[in-house]
Hints:
The protein is α/β, with parallel strands linked by helices. It has helices spanning 12-20, 41-50, 70-86, 104-114, 131-139, 160-169, 187-194; strands at residues 4-9, 25-28, 55-58, 90-93, 118-121, 146-149, 175-178, 198-201.
Amino acid sequence: MQIIKEVCVDSFLDAVNAEEKGANRIELCSRLDMDGLTPSKKLINKVFSNLNIPIRVMIRPKHPSFIYSDRDIQRMIEDINFCKKLGVDGIVLGCLNEDSNFNMKQINFLSEIAKPLNVIIHKAIDNTDSVLNSLLLLLKNKNINGILTSGGKTFAIDAIENLKKMLDLAPDNFEIISAGGITHKNIDELHSLIQGKYYHGKSIIKLK
């Protein structure tokens, strides 16, 4: 089984370098030092115009909270519509309530707007009470194509059992993208333990 290595980048040069070094896909952000925010339209356009591999764009207007006001949601809609018009592969987002569980009303609304783009729910899932229950909630929405997760832990390698359960729960056409401290040095070990298909990280391929 071919595995997909998705590299998160926050600059044009890093995006080009990732493609040249063998990345299968890019997650484009700004401010990776803040775990990734929405990149500028200029950067999205430049990367999309120059790369051949699929690009998914982070839609996250602020840090660190995943709780969004109506004004935040409006910004997210504008960024999603820009990505739709451009024709990127997908967008990455996540919305929580005050209790740190998914705000499914916002998620369902934004995922409907985003179609036909792929919609991935990011690591906000790892802040929820139960990654497994949260996954079941997401699976009810057929507009959502996958999740980015470290299985509820900081590092994927510490959440092997949860990741395996999530892979078992998800249908074949739903991407469980493992993330959290995964690098080119430990991806083979992790893959041998969970047998996933999708892996994500800043250093998931050797860039230098």
